[in-house]
Amino acid sequence: MSRLAKAADITDPLLWRDAQHMLGRHSSPDEQDQCAWCGKAWPCDARRLAERAAAASKRGWRESWTARHDINNLRSLPRWRREFY
Ligand SMILES: [Zn+2]
After folding, report:
1. pLDDT at 27
2. Looking at residue 56, what is its pLDDT?
3. Distance, CA 25 to ligand 1 centroid (Å)?
4. Contact between residue 37 and residue 50 where contact means Cβ atoms under 8 Å apart
5. pTM of the full predicted structure?
6. Which residues lie below 8 Å from residue 18, measured CB to CB, with a gap of 6+?
7. pLDDT band at 1 (very low <50, low <70, confident <90, very high)
8. CA–centroid distance, residue 4 to ligand 1 (Å)
9. In terms of Cα–Cα distance, which of 58, 82, 84 is closest to 70?
10. Cα(24) to centroid(ligand 1), Å
């Protein structure tokens, strides 16, 4: 993960910011190979989604729209803010 990515590479700064936030939370597995943040099997759903979102934020609008849609779906779940975000 790099915060030094060139701004010019990022086509969706909001999605990029959200992805970095999630990557920072779900950053590593614990000794049981579960996410140290949310306790799910590593890589957890949030980690995979964040990685996808980070990649999508640097590509075309079509993919970034899809990733944002996924994130918004996750956020609509009551557990999202408590566990994922
Ligand atoms: Zn996690």
Report:
1. 96
2. 85
3. 7
4. no
5. 0.69
6. 50, 53, 71
7. very low
8. 23
9. 84
10. 10
